[in-house]
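dumping this here before i forget
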Amino acid sequence: MIGRVLAFCVLASGPAWANAPAQSLRPEERPTALVQAPSVNSETAAEGLAASLRPKQRTRRFEQAVAKSINALNAQLARGQVCGDPQIQGERISAIPGRIAGCGVTEPVRVRSVAGVPLSTPATMDCTTAKALKTWVNSGVKPAVGSQGGGVRNLRVVAHYACRTRNNQAGARISEHGRGRAIDIAGIGLNNGTEMTLLTDWNRGAKGRALKQMWRAACGPFGTVLGPESNRFHLDHFHFDTAHYRSGAYCR
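structure:
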């Protein structure tokens, strides 16, 4: 009988928190109905969100200044471009007659930079070779170097046009250098003042891996690709030329 009375009392009174002041309960004890978010005006909230996501509108004067800078840069690139490509900067020069049979360049250019990367010395070549060099810098050099040393600063050129035989050997055939179709590169200058050189870095660490990646990337844009593993004449530089072979690119 006593048990029935107690049960009735509990059921009649409800849970313990029902008669307690809401502010006296811990958060986890409060019923959902008592835990309410502060009232928010939905229209005001939407306006605030839209304003926070919208970038500050540029002034007309600012836009005009940006357009003027872009136009000036494009005009500068157009003035300095050769081979019909703004990424190849240099100048056209007069035809080069060969002093011996097989040498000479009909429409040579003197290239100062390709794809925004300066050459250590202006290099004379034809446009086919200049375009291959640009392709190699974009698809080979820049990806291979990445952020090492702060990125690519320049290319160290050690040979370009020269009326001579292959490897300067007596009795050999005329080199592609003698036709304006070749360039030799010994190092990749970096923005931190250091350099990747074939002579010192070819088989060493990250720089060596980057140089070998560049070597592979050159095979295709250029018809001939020679490096330190090709022969004793190329221990310290890449030789690239745009000669064509029926069997495809020659890369060693």
